[in-house]
Specification:
two-stranded antiparallel ribbon; globular; 6 strands; alpha+beta; 160 residues
C-alpha cells in the first residue's frame, strides 16, 4: 500500500514481473494473453495504480473477475459464483472457470508485491453482494407466475 502511483504501461510491466508473467489463477505463461488486473478500479478511492492493487490474470480470468463471476478471497483462494458452478456448458466453462474454484492464487515471491488483503476483502464483499439473491425480484417473479398477472417484468407465463 505504501507505493507511489505509476503509469499504466509501467504498472502492467511491474505487475507481470511480480507474477513472473503468469496468470495467478490458471498459471498461463503467455504475456500477450495476460493483463494487470486491478483489484479495486482506478475510480475507487483506494484504487491506486500500485502493484499491491494488481494481479496478473489471463484475459478470460480478468474478464470474469471484472464481471464478478469469480472472486478472490482475502486468504488468496479463488471462488466461482455458485450459479456458474451449477451451469452446464462447454469445456471452457468447465476447465477454465469452474475447476478453478477453491484453488490457491499463485502469489509473487516478494511480499511487497502481493495483493493487498484489505483491497481483496473489499472487492470480495462486492462479489458477495452481486451474487446475493434478490428476494424482492424472486418473490415478484414467483407471484407473477402464480397469479398470472403482469408487472414491469412483463406478463407472467405458465408452462402448463
Amino acid at each position: 500500500m505504501g507505493q507511489d502511483p505509476i503509469a499504466p504501461a509501467i504498472l502492467r510491466s511491474r505487475v507481470l514481473h511480480a507474477y513472473n508473467s503468469t496468470c495467478a489463477i490458471c498459471r498461463l505463461h503467455h504475456p500477450e494473453l495476460l493483463d494487470a488486473a486491478h483489484i479495486l478500479p482506478d475510480v475507487h478511492p483506494r484504487g491506486a495504480p500500485v502493484v499491491p492493487n494488481g494481479i496478473t490474470l489471463c484475459k478470460l480470468h480478468h474478464a470474469a473477475f471484472d464481471r464478478n463471476l469469480l472472486g478472490i478471497r482475502p486468504d488468496f483462494v479463488v471462488e466461482i459464483r455458485s450459479e456458474l458452478l451449477r451451469e452446464i456448458d462447454g469445456p471452457m466453462l468447465q476447465h477454465d472457470i469452474k475447476e478453478m474454484n477453491g484453488t490457491q492464487l499463485e502469489l509473487p515471491g516478494e511480499r511487497a508485491s502481493r495483493p493487498d488483503t484489505a483491497r481483496l476483502e473489499e472487492r470480495y464483499q462486492e462479489l458477495i453482494e452481486v451474487a446475493r439473491p434478490r428476494p424482492y425480484r424472486q418473490g415478484l417473479r414467483s407471484r407473477l407466475v402464480n397469479d398470472n398477472t403482469t408487472d414491469a417484468l412483463g406478463p407472467a407465463c405458465s408452462m402448463g
